[in-house]
Amino acid sequence: MSSTEGAEGGGDQPCIRLEPLNAHLSGKAGETHLLYGDTDATSKVSANGVQDIEDRILRITGYYGYYPGYSSHRREEGSESRADTPGSEASGEGTSYQTCANTVLKVLGGLLLVLCVSSSWVGTTQLVQLTFKSFSCPFFVSWFSTNWNILLFPLYYGGHVVTTRDKQTPIQKFRECSRLFGEDGMTLKLFLKRTAPFSILWTLTNYLYLLALRKLTATDVSALYCCHKAFVFLLSWIVLKDRFMGVRIVAAIMAITGIVMMAYADGFHGDSIIGVALAVGSASTSALYKVLFKMFLGSASLGEVAHFLSTMGVFNLIFISFIPLILYFTKVEHWGSLSSLPWGYLCGLAGLWLVFNILVNVGVVLTYPILISIGTLLSVPGNAAVDVLKHEVIFSVVRLAATCIICLGFLLLLLPEEWDSVTLRFLAAFADKKSEEHGEELTESSINTRSRSRANGTVSIPMA
């Protein structure tokens, strides 16, 4: 420390060491420039009396890192930071607002999609029952509706052309989406090997569902079909070695309980038990289809799913068309001449089924997948409302209880895998917040008690 710094620091040094003048001056010039800064800035700071007094107080007290004009520089920096802060805050607020707006739009779009999914599935189920009144041929209806899946890939390519700048030809897009079958694309062997089992499961799912609608009401069949979610979990746990979750086991047990109660509603006899068995079979084949798709094909993009469903439509048209002919000639499903068919009902049914498949596959990409599952679940109360208002169906207490149990199990299956840890963290945060609020209330009450005691001339002594 130099003599000047020692003197201004309070005079605590016992002696002053003299240095050679040349060395002192040569070193001091640069040191003075670095320490004190620009002389113009110093004179500018000293021009203000208040700032000069602050600088002297800081210099005398030996404030760490002090240099003249520190207080003024701090003011200038503070004013600059305050000038910059509104812009940064505005940009931060704009980003958060944009994020919130995107989330709200996505949720609103998802809710609209939920209504569309449930409405299309309710319309499909109700239209099937209307069709059966004049044309009771479930396999022909299933085959005819599955053929409409061929339109999925052309519709996807049309959306690709409209929404994308880098447009590809149909052949290029087809080859790109064919990678779902392998690196070499789709060959005849892979076409038969990959498409055949899924097409058979798809046909069985639809056919059993339509057969169940001939025996039960639309509400019962749609509620029993919701059990496929529990079957998917059980198969994924056994086959795919997915994570074990106790709550999903409970949901599966609830689904099985609902199935038994639904069968018991009419005393385990007649069309009721057959209809329950058919609906459960449809849910089982649907679950097997989804698990095998995940096992062999994995996660697929929207274009690959559209390509795959269109391929199944082609397979259905080429290789399964002989089954309706066999049923026709054996008089199992006899529909008469082609002109006598209810083409309005058939085309409306196939169109609604196609819309449902499009919404399900597109909705998973555009919004939250859980909303699509909720849309399928909402078809149960939707069908119930139509059955009560239009068909005047009276539900027994056992059927209502079974339907509610199945729907509750379906909702439990929608819980995410980390729901338990998330719930515990939320409860812990809520408990901490409650304890903080309770502590603040105790502090405020003690302060109020002390102030009242002082006002009355007494002193309150807290007890240990």
Automatic annotation (TrEMBL):
Residues 73-83 have a biased composition (Basic and acidic residues). The chain crosses the membrane at residues 104-123, 135-157, 191-210, 222-240, 246-265, 272-293, 305-329, 341-360, 366-386, 393-415. Residues 72-94, 440-464 are annotated as: Disordered. Residues 110-263 form the EamA domain. GO terms for cellular component: membrane. It holds the Pfam family EamA. Keywords: Membrane, Transmembrane, Transmembrane helix. Residues 444-464 have a biased composition (Polar residues). SUPFAM superfamilies: Multidrug resistance efflux transporter EmrE. This is Solute carrier family 35 member F4. It comes from Salmo trutta. The lineage of its organism: Eukaryota, Metazoa, Chordata, Craniata, Vertebrata. The gene is SLC35F4.
